[in-house]
Amino acid sequence: MTKRGVARISVSVSPELLKEFDATVKRMGFDRSKAVQAAMRNFLTDFRLQEGRGTVAGALVMVYDHKVKGLEETLTDLQHRFESVISSTMHIHLSKHNCLEIVAVRGEVKEIQALAQKLMTERGVKQLKQVIVMP
Ligand code: NI
């Protein structure tokens, strides 16, 4: 294994799994190495999320009803409390009632999960999705 450049690995898989993997990789226009790298990154990101440890980056995407009394103030207060993991926020007025907010995050998984949990449980927040990747 080297720190720079590329490291080559050899893995054992069932022929059926490899056949389906290769067919999917081909359909997506990937090559096998790139697909394995993407799968490894997803695996590591999932593990960080499960374990609640490590550094990640991503976005929290939420829809809320801005007519709900006090909600916008609460959401702003929360974002100030978690300013250490928030890089930026984008606000889009979707309709008369609905706002879409995209909160870009980077930092400790535990902090980001705590922020997401607090945002999604506020009354008036209709939906929250997390898109998390390796930084
Ligand atoms: Ni709005």
What does this 3D model show about the protein?
This protein has 135 residues and is an alpha+beta fold. The chain has 2 domains: 15-51; 55-133, Alpha-Beta Plaits. It contains 4 helices and 4 strands. It has helices at residues 15-28, 32-51, 71-81, 109-120, and strands at residues 55-65, 86-93, 98-108, 125-133. Strands 2-3-1-4 form a 4-stranded antiparallel β-sheet. A hairpin with a 4-residue loop joins strand 2 (86-93) and strand 3. The model has no long low-confidence stretch (mean pLDDT 95). The structure holds nickel (II) ion. Nickel (II) ion (NI) binds next to strand 2. Residues 66, 91, 93, 99 line the site of nickel (II) ion.
Furnish the topology, listing elements before pairings:
Elements: H1 15-28, H2 32-51, E1 55-65, H3 71-81, E2 86-93, E3 98-108, H4 109-120, E4 125-133
Antiparallel strand pairs: 1-3, 1-4, 2-3
CATH class (first level) name of the largest domain: Alpha Beta
Structural category is alpha+beta
Question: In terms of quaternary structure, what is this?
Answer: single chain
CATH fold description of the largest domain: Alpha-Beta Plaits
Question: What's the shape?
Answer: elongated
Report the helical percentage.
40-55%
Order of helices and strands: HHEHEEHE
Q: What topology, given as strand order, has the largest sheet?
A: 2-3-1-4
Can you name the CATH architecture of the largest domain? Answer: 2-Layer Sandwich
Total strands: the figure is 4
> Roughly what fraction of the amino acids lie in strands?
25-35%
When the domains are counted, the total is: 2
What value does the average pLDDT take? 95
User: How many separate helices?
Assistant: 4
Q: Note the main sheet.
A: 4 strands, antiparallel
Radius of gyration: 20 Å
Unreliable spans are: none
End-to-end gap = 22 Å
Q: How would you name the CATH homologous superfamily of the largest domain?
A: ACT-like. Chain A, domain 2
What ligand species are in this complex? Answer: nickel (II) ion
